[in-house]
Design goal:
Shape: globular
Number of strands: 35
Structural class: mainly beta
Radius of gyration: 23 Å
Largest sheet: 5 strands, antiparallel
Strand order of the largest sheet: 1-8-7-6-5
Length: 501
């Protein structure tokens, strides 16, 4: 849109250019909330640069040629002005928002379809806010249902894949019965949400929020258990929650704070020791102050914040990185950093995968700023190989039954239509799969047995493109409305090494 077509004042400019992604009320949507509370660590000069030039690894486009200089400055000043009254989302608001869509007692105990329930795919279609259910054996849709706006963070499965929990950027958590193809319950846990995590038995749900600065804990029926304010140990500095993940062997949730250099571990089992706080004279004699270990944070204090992280196979350690690329290894048992990671750019560790290579366990990750896949030895934390690829990529996927790892280059305007297959033994790119230039081809997920690899043609008139995982030849296409992600039940429930958890 030419500059002369812009609106005359900041509020109108916001509605014209920003509201579709960040919400009419600035409380967030597909993009984050634009409020002073959310922008406290972002200086105006840096924010102005982002608005002018766009932001790497996001859908934020440049506006330098759309809004004139003075109007852009006024718009930014307006965004940094507090909303009055200030937005709130309290425990009472969470409880009041809960919706019971179905009576669990009336839902059947067997799937209502004939497909293998462990080889289903859920395809999130952002184009019209729906989710499609695919039969992973026949590679055909069997159901489609509407979702909340802008699902984010990937669905999480529980009770062997029967239930799946979705989180939306505007804070809604949805519990869906995949066997009965029906929404069971919903609750709004925040205003601007990053992701959700769920215990395997479905009894506990954790919700990471950017706004308000909270980690919300729910039971399996989406009733509120507890709201944890995301602050430092002294309660002086508030923080957004970067992400929360479930660590099954530890029976806990692991969360990182975006504005405070801390990692939290929150146990969802009552069979856990109490947490010491303050000065402890004698642990055995319990001379000092303790709080219950159940649903309270056990803190690991760090030198740098973590924006993204990846667990080792036994969940004793996590590999994390800040948005600036500072990588570190944190041991969750001793609760401290134990190694640095020699990473550059903006590693996307949350999309990492692992496999065995020449007698050692390795982890590989994409990078949102650098055109490489980084392969790391999980014993020494050394970089074994930097595999050059077409452009900065977002997703890396494989399967234990496949010799290939698929990587996209979706951060590259010129090469976002190209998938590359990396041979996991030679650590080299051996094949390119090119779609139509200018259109994004990304996010591969495998069938349960690893025979087929499904990729997303990430467009409003897009498709799921199915490839033979051995020959790398296209098998079929299923039309979809901007399929931003697909998730196989077996791979997620069994923590398949080739997919993110």
């Amino acid at each position: 849109m030419p500059a002369h077509a812009r609106a005359a004042d900041p509020a109108a400019d916001y509605l014209l250019h920003c509201a579709a992604c960040h919400g009419v009320d600035r409380l967030g949507g597909m993009g984050p909330a634009l409020l002073p509370e959310n922008l406290s660590r972002l200086r105006k000069a840096e924010a102005l640069k982002i608005v002018r030039e766009g932001r790497a690894a996001t859908q934020m486009p440049p506006f330098a040629e759309v809004i004139e200089g003075e109007a852009l400055t006024k718009l930014l000043d307006w965004v940094y002005t507090p909303v009055v009254p200030a937005p709130r989302w309290s425990a009472d608001d969470i409880r009041a928002s809960r919706i019971q869509h179905a009576d669990p007692a009336q839902l059947g105990e067997r799937p209502v379809f004939s497909a293998d329930p462990l080889n289903l795919f859920l395809v999130v279609e952002a184009g019209d806010h729906h989710v499609s259910v695919l039969d992973g054996d026949r590679l055909e849709p069997i159901h489609r249902f509407p979702s909340r706006h802008a699902l984010h963070g990937g669905p999480k499965f529980a009770q062997g894949g029967r239930y799946v929990f979705f989180g939306s950027r505007d804070g809604w958590v949805t519990k869906y019965d995949l066997w009965n193809l029906q929404v069971v319950a919903e609750v709004r846990a925040g205003i601007n949400t990053r992701n959700v995590a769920v215990s395997p038995d479905g009894s506990h749900v954790a919700v990471a929020n950017y706004l308000p600065h909270t980690l919300v804990l729910l039971d399996g029926d989406l009733n509120l258990l507890k709201v944890l304010d995301a602050t430092d140990r002294d309660g002086k500095q508030s923080s957004r929650v970067s992400a929360v993940y479930e660590a099954t062997p530890r029976q806990s949730f692991i969360a990182a704070l975006k504005d405070v250099p801390e990692v939290w571990e929150i146990s969802y089992t009552r069979a856990v020791e109490d947490i010491p706080v303050g000065f402890i004279h004698d642990y055995k004699q319990r001379e000092g102050a303790f709080i219950p270990g159940y649903l309270n944070p056990r803190r690991t204090q760090l030198a740098d914040v973590l924006d993204d992280f990846f667990f080792t196979q036994d969940y004793s350690e996590l590999m994390g990185a800040s948005r600036e690329g500072a990588g570190q290894v944190v041991n969750l048992d001793v609760r401290k950093k134990v190694a640095d990671l020699p990473l550059a750019g903006m590693p996307h560790l949350g999309s990492g995968i692992t496999w065995d290579w020449q007698g050692r366990r390795v982890m590989a990750s994409t990078n949102l700023k650098t055109a490489e896949v980084t392969v790391i030895d999980l014993k020494t934390w050394e970089v074994l190989r930097r595999i050059p690829i077409r452009g900065p990529g977002f997703f890396l996927r494989s399967h234990e039954n496949s010799r290939y790892a698929f990587v996209d280059s979706m951060m590259s305007p010129e090469n976002k239509h190209i998938l590359q297959a990396i041979d996991k033994e030679t650590l080299e790119v051996v094949r390119e799969i090119a779609g139509e230039p200018g259109r994004t081809l990304a996010h591969v997920e495998f069938t349960r047995d690893g025979r087929y690899a499904l990729a997303s043609l990430w467009e409003d008139d897009g498709a799921i493109v199915v490839y033979d995982a051995a020959t790398l030849e296209e098998v079929k296409r299923l039309p979809m409305k901007k399929p931003v992600g697909k998730y196989n039940v077996w791979n997620k429930v069994m923590r398949e090494e080739g997919t993110s958890h």
